[in-house]
From TrEMBL:
InterPro entries: At4g02000-like, DUF4283
Stored Pfam families: DUF4283
Source taxonomy: Eukaryota, Viridiplantae, Streptophyta, Embryophyta, Tracheophyta
Name of this chain's protein: DUF4283 domain-containing protein
Originating organism: Taxus chinensis (Chinese yew)
Residues annotated as domain DUF4283: 105-186
């Protein structure tokens, strides 16, 4: 085989004996094209099965070595990207709407979630989600930074069902969940409101009423609902309801209920969160790590 450059032609000999040399020459030809050499084939190239794995007919050499286009990518002029540099030399690239729309189509039915208290692996999350959410369509779980994960669906029904079917818990870990939005950044995302289950152990039966329980729930956060055994009184050891609370709010340990039968000091227990400070009554840290308590101790120090 002979490889000629700068206006000459590439020629592949007919024998299989020179198959190895042909493969090497193909690589050299591709390198030549990448360096903008003046490469042309005077005659169409006869491609051999030994090199390409099948008979593909006769094509110009430039067509043989060029990268095939991605059928899923719609052509768009490169000039649509506007590139500028600021005073510090940093490049600013304006992304056209067409490319943004193509990316958005892959996440328009997506939710972002984060389990509070631990970071289960992706297999655990996937198995849990399939078992609890029971999606009718496809569900793809992908982990993100800072303990977040992305749940991608292909049916709007499944998205609505998951959002309206909460609150959700994995074991004793509550789930923060919201719709994905453009600009979501797990490094700066601030979790404000979260669902949490509350228990009232030993609640007297004369106070066991749905409306009474919902008013107790309002004293803690925004009521979401009662569980089944509480509504039908099939479990009397404790009543149980779910509320939405702010991450930095104080959670009361008890509430005093007054009626014509006297006062009842009702204890309140919180599920799903082991990281609750006994000093400031907030979630996310133990009392030994409480900054508010540390500041108070320093102020009291003579």
């Amino acid at each position: 085989m002979e490889l000629l450059r700068a206006g000459c032609e590439f020629e592949i000999s007919g024998g299989l004996r020179e198959g190895f040399e042909s493969v090497v020459s193909i690589a050299l030809a591709a390198e030549c094209l990448s360096k903008n050499c003046d490469v042309a084939a005077k005659e169409p190239v006869k491609e051999k099965n030994a090199i390409f794995g099948g008979s593909v007919g006769s094509r110009a050499w430039a067509e043989v070595v060029k990268t095939p286009p991605d059928k899923n990518v719609k052509p768009q002029a490169a000039c649509d990207f506007k590139s500028t540099k600021d005073a510090e030399g940093v490049t600013h690239l304006q992304v056209p709407d067409g490319f943004l729309q193509r990316a958005l189509e892959k996440t328009n039915l997506a939710l972002v979630g984060k389990f509070l208290g631990a970071r289960p692996n992706v297999d655990t999350i996937r198995n849990w989600a399939i078992r609890r959410w029971k999606p009718k369509g496809d569900l793809i779980i992908t982990t993100m930074a800072k303990g977040f994960f992305l749940a991608r669906f292909n049916l709007q029904y499944d998205v609505d069902s998951v959002l309206l079917g909460g609150p959700w818990c994995l074991g004793n870990m509550g789930l923060f969940l919201k719709k994905w939005y453009p600009g979501f950044n797990p490094f700066v995302e601030n979790i404000h409101a979260i669902p949490i289950w509350c228990r009232l152990p030993g609640l007297p039966l004369h106070l066991w009423d749905d409306e009474i329980l919902l008013h107790i729930a309002k004293s803690i956060g925004s009521p979401i609902g009662l569980d089944g055994p509480t509504r039908n009184r099939s479990r009397l050891a404790f009543s149980r309801f779910c509320v939405s609370i702010e991450m930095d709010q104080e959670l009361p340990d008890n509430i005093v209920l007054q009626s014509k039968f006297g006062e009842w000091n009702q204890q309140i227990e919180y599920e799903a969160f082991k990281l609750r400070c006994s000093k400031c009554h907030r979630l996310g840290h133990f009392s030994s790590k409480c900054l508010e308590h540390t500041v108070q101790k320093l102020e009291d120090f003579p």
